[in-house]
Write a structure and sequence with these properties.
Shape of chain A: elongated
Distance between the termini of chain A: 70 Å
Helix content of chain A: 55-70%
Structural class of chain A: mainly alpha
Strand content of chain A: 5-15%
Number of helices of chain A: 8
Order of helices and strands of chain A: HEHHEEHEHHHH
Oligomer: homodimer
Chain lengths: 193, 193
DNA sequence: GGTAACATGTAAGCGGTTACATGATTAG
DNA sequence: CTAATCATGTAACCGCTTACATGTTACC
C-alpha cells in the first residue's frame, strides 16, 4: 500500500495529538492544517484541499477512524489513528531511503543574477532575504510553546526540529548581513583612505 | 507581459554565459540545464522538459534570439539575450516583492514525528540528514571553480550565493551532529555514574 | 451588528516531473 | 565495441494551489 507524503503528514499529526489544547488524540482536518502552520511550515506545507480528501482515503484504508463531533450546529469531524495507521507511520519513519530535500528560493535565484543590476538593488535583495529569515526565526520562537506542549506529553522531537529550522535561518541572517556589508563597502569606496 | 520564474532562470543563465567553457554569451538548452545543476541546484531546479518549450516561447516574445549551431551532424541550437530580454531580467531583479521561499524536506518531517519510533531510528534519521548536507557542501565546493569563472568575467554574485548555500548546510551539519549526541546520550544512560 | 475565526469541502487549472523517443559523438 | 555524454524534444500524468461555495459561532 503506497501512501503519499501528505498522507504521512496527516498520520504524524494525528499521532502527535492537539498542539494547542490538549484534548485527546482525536483531531479535525482543520486542526491538522493549524498544527502544520504552527510547527512544520518552515519545511513543509499542506493545503486544506489536500487534507480533506486524504483523510477520507485514509479512513477507507482503515488507517484512521473518524467520528462526528459537532460543536452545536457547527460541523466537525474528528479523527484518530488506528493501530494500522500507527504501524504505517512507523514503517515510513524507519524506511531506509534518502529523504528528498527540495528548496525553491526566488531570493537566492535573484541574488545569483544580481551582477546584472546596480549594487543598490543587490543590497535590497540581501536585506529582504535577511528580514525574511528574521521573521521565520520569530515564527519558530512563536511556535515554541506548541513544542513545549508536545514535550509535556513526552514528545521531544518537535522542539528539536524547530532547533534545526532556527539554525538554518540564523545562518542565512548571519551570511546575508556579512554580504550586505561587503557589497556596501564596494559601493562607497570613496570613504576609504 | 507576465513570465514564469523558470523563464527568468533561463534569461539569467543566458546572461551569465557559459559556466564551464567560456565561449561567448550564447548557450543551448542543454548548457542551461548543466549550469543549473552546477550552481543553482541547491535552491532551484529545472528540467529539460521545461527549458525547451520555454526557450521557444521566449524567442517568440523576442526576449532571446536563437540560431542553429550544429556540431557536425549533432543538432545544437544556441541562444542569446536580446536587449529586451536583458531589460526583462533587470526589471524582475529590481521588482519590489517579497520573494517566495519554499522548503520541502521529508527528513525534517520524519524527524518531527520521530518520537513514534525507537531512538535508534531517530539517530539514523539525523545521521542521514547530516550526510545529505555534507554531500551538498562538497557539491557547492565542487561548483566553486564554476563560480571562479564567473568572477573572472566580473560576476561576483554566483560565489556569494554559494556562500549562503554553504552556510545553510553547515548549520544543518552542526545542529544534527549536536542532536545525534544528545539522543545517543539518552539511549545509553547506563554509562553515566 | 460586523468581523474574525471555525469548519468542510469541490472544481479547475497549472507548474512540474517522469518517461519516452531519437540520434550523434567521444572516450575508454 | 560499448558506454557515457551531448542534444532536443514530446506526452502523459499528478500533486498542489487557487478560487470558490457554504454556513456557524465567538468576540468586540
Amino acid at each position: 500500500m503506497e501512501l503519499s507524503t501528505s498522507a504521512y503528514v496527516i498520520l504524524g499529526f494525528l499521532r502527535l495529538g492537539p498542539i494547542d489544547e490538549p484534548r485527546h488524540g482525536a483531531r479535525s482536518g482543520y486542526d491538522i492544517k493549524r498544527s502544520v502552520d504552527l510547527t512544520a511550515r518552515v519545511f513543509w506545507n499542506i493545503s486544506p484541499a489536500q487534507i480533506y480528501p486524504e483523510l477520507k482515503k485514509l479512513e477507507e484504508e482503515g488507517l484512521v477512524r473518524g467520528r462526528e463531533e459537532p460543536h452545536g450546529k457547527r460541523a466537525r469531524r474528528v479523527f484518530e489513528l488506528t493501530s494500522e495507521g500507527e504501524a504505517a507511520l512507523q514503517e515510513w519513519l524507519a524506511r531506509d531511503e534518502t529523504a528528498a530535500l527540495e528548496i525553491r528560493d526566488e531570493a537566492m535565484l535573484k541574488l545569483l543574477f544580481a551582477d546584472a543590476v546596480e549594487p543598490e538593488v543587490a543590497i535590497k535583495l540581501l536585506r529582504s532575504m535577511r528580514e525574511r529569515s528574521e521573521q521565520a526565526l520569530s515564527a519558530i520562537v512563536g511556535g515554541y510553546p506548541a513544542g513545549l506542549i508536545s514535550e509535556a506529553k513526552g514528545d521531544k522531537f518537535p522542539i528539536r526540529t524547530g532547533l534545526i529550522g532556527a539554525a538554518i535561518h540564523q545562518a542565512i541572517v548571519d551570511t546575508t548581513r556579512q554580504l550586505e556589508a561587503e557589497v556596501m563597502a564596494e559601493t562607497a569606496p570613496a570613504k576609504a583612505k
